[in-house]
Amino acid sequence: MSAPDQAVPQTDLRALLEGSYRSALEAVAPARLLAPYLTGPRPDFVLAFGKAALPMLRAALEAYPGVPGLAVPPLGTPDLSVPEGAEVLPGSHPVPDENSTSAAEQALARVRALPEGARLLVLVSGGGSALLSAPWGVTLAQKQALTRDLLRAGAAIEEINAVRKHLSQVKGGRLAQATRAQVRALLISDVIGDDPSVIASGPTVPDATTFADALAVLDRYGIAAPEARAHLSSGARGDLPETPKPGELPHVENTVIGSNRVLLEAAQQFFGARGVRSVILSDTFAGEARDLAGFHASLVQSIRSYGTPFQGPLVLLSGGEATVTVRGEGRGGRNQEFALWLLETLGERGVYALSAGSDGIDGNSDAAGAFLTPDSLARAHAQNLDPRDFLARNDSGSFFAALGDALITGPSGHNLNDYRALLVE
């Protein structure tokens, strides 16, 4: 790859970054990921839940026509069509609602009704924790409030799931525990490390966490939640049954079929096909968006100044899942927050970059993420936009919308964590 010509319009390089995002998502579409696994005996029932529930269910029922199925996608999904004989019960994400509860109750009823020796195919994707919600020991409103508190506190997904598993009738292996059927679960991972027990809070996977672990999470973030604490404390004393532990679900087979790493590798192939060198930094980045932006900025500066640890020009690809400790009431999400901190850190020596969520929705905004260009800061100053002001309000979405640099895609029907691409010239 030759260094970008100064005469090349910025839109060309921005289009290259957007093309990498869209192409990578298409390459790892749920139906493509599922295809190699839809072989063998026909299932007697297919249950799909998560942000990719509908494309996964459609692919499964194309391979196994006539099999009854149930999909639980997010509310607002534009196309709810499924083959005849299948049912769709949308739920709420990221905070569960009555629809999520109704869907979980229906799913439990269907899997409990399957006789011994029947085959159950479970298709799981990110977002399933909220979409399939059957509160236990707390009301739905109390669980909603607790989920919001954990998200606002910046708790990691593993911590949130440890709590949710012990306040649920379906999570932490309890869904699989409820059926006599042979269970085959195919999972698309939206979590760092691709641990099946963490994906959608592991409804078909044995759970190594305990009631005591869940209590410790509430303590760590100073969350009161008295009703949840009473329930968890009762479980910690042994008054309530624990989630099934490793070795206790012999009738279940879990397989992870897609992940953030697969998404990044697809992007790397996209760039390679265009003669653009790229490197995958990691698919396991976690922590505050501000800190991740600082790390990426330092790397960009080192490459530019010293040619280490990589020689430019090249594209830096990274994934994982950032977090944001919310202190303001603005619009945006972790990907736009990352982009705005990257802009603030690099200053006038900007960079072409894209940071976006693979699900097409970043936080409470209508954008998937945001672009940066080398002149982003100059354009912001020309409009009297101060990045620090927007960061203080957690209002990155409004900042990039004002610049015209928000990436708007709508829900992708997928969820493979974050996608970041930085072009270092």
UniProtKB/TrEMBL annotation:
A Pfam family per the record:
MOFRL
Q: Where is the MOFRL-associated domain?
A: 19-232
Q: Which InterPro entries match?
A: GK-like_C_sf (IPR037035), GK_N_sf (IPR038614), MOFRL (IPR007835), MOFRL_assoc_dom (IPR025286), MOFRL_protein (IPR039760)
The record places domain MOFRL at 315-418
Which residue windows are transmembrane per the record? none
Q: What is the residue range of the signal peptide feature?
A: none
Name of the protein in its database record:
Hydroxypyruvate reductase
Organism of this sequence: Deinococcus carri
The organism's taxonomy opens as: Bacteria, Thermotogati, Deinococcota, Deinococci, Deinococcales
Which gene is this protein's source?
ttuD
